[in-house]
Specification:
globular; 7-stranded parallel sheet; Rossmann fold; alpha/beta; 44% helix
């Protein structure tokens, strides 16, 4: 059957996507995975110049491999409600449909228990949780516009294994925010299933990004020692899962939180 061939199972060609925090790290990897496979991808980033540079780099790769996909930069600061509303408004000026929304923009905060400030919770819950909910809310009509039982629209929230297990670092606000986005994923999945919108979360383990650079620079050996597969993640580890969740293959998956962590969560602690 043609429907069981790889090209059909993982087809995202012609889909319209929005990836927040898409100018670097995990967001840039997911944006590129979609674009080189034919999707039209909008990326947001607080820094307009970085957003534009990333879009140009991915577009050059799409041109090189003759992919019909492309990337459009939509700079936005999602740390405020106004910034979320502006991004939704800017996106809807270009598109009536959003097939794929990836809530990746986020921040972290590490500080000892004794001095971990309320400001950490204010900032991280606003960006890592509230902004995700608010953007789904503002783009709900676009997510519904072309959704069907056979081909639902897709929301992917980027969580963390820090929201599933206990971190070695002093990331109290960050870990709480990621546990919150995991549960919000389940709640939204239950609410939006009848509208043909799937909602899933990816919970990455250690990946070499700007957010984890300081930790890996100081403790990479210790981090890798806690990973049963004995390595940090690489871009393809996340790109493949993104294509699964956003293609026909993932149409029957919703409400899941999927660790991509090299087995960290099942690593023996003793």
């Amino acid at each position: 059957m043609a429907a069981l061939q790889v090209d059909a199972l993982f087809d995202v060609c012609g889909r319209v996507a929005l990836v927040t925090g898409g100018s670097r790290g995990i967001g840039a990897v997911l944006a590129e995975a979609l674009a080189v496979n034919g999707a039209k991808v909008y990326i947001s980033s607080r820094k307009a110049e970085a957003c534009t540079r990333c879009a140009e780099a991915i577009n050059a790769e799409c041109h090189r491999i003759k992919s019909p996909g492309r990337v459009i930069a939509l700079p936005a600061d999602l740390g405020t409600s106004e910034g979320v509303e502006q991004l939704a408004s800017d996106f809807l000026k270009h598109e009536r449909t959003c097939h794929i929304l990836i809530n990746n923009a986020g921040a972290t905060w590490g500080e000892p228990l004794e001095t971990h400030p309320p400001a950490a919770f204010d900032k991280l819950l606003a960006l890592n949780v509230r902004a995700c909910f608010h953007l789904v809310q503002k783009l709900l009509g676009a997510l519904e516009a072309d959704a069907s039982a056979a081909r639902p629209s897709t929301v992917i929230n980027i969580g963390s294994i820090n929201g599933l297990g206990i971190s070695l670092m002093d990331t109290y606000a960050y870990s709480a925010s990621k546990a919150a986005i995991h549960h919000l994923t389940r709640v939204l999945a239950a609410q939006l299933a009848a509208r043909h919108i799937t909602v899933n979360a990816i919970a990455p383990g250690p990946f070499p990004t700007k957010m984890t650079a300081a930790v890996l620079a100081s403790f990479e050996t210790e981090v890798v020692d806690r990973v049963p597969l004995r390595r940090v993640g690489k871009p393809s580890d996340l790109a493949g899962l993104c294509l699964l969740l956003t293609s026909p293959t993932g149409a029957y998956m919703t409400g899941t939180v999927i660790p991509v962590d090299g087995g960290s969560l099942v690593s023996p602690s003793l």
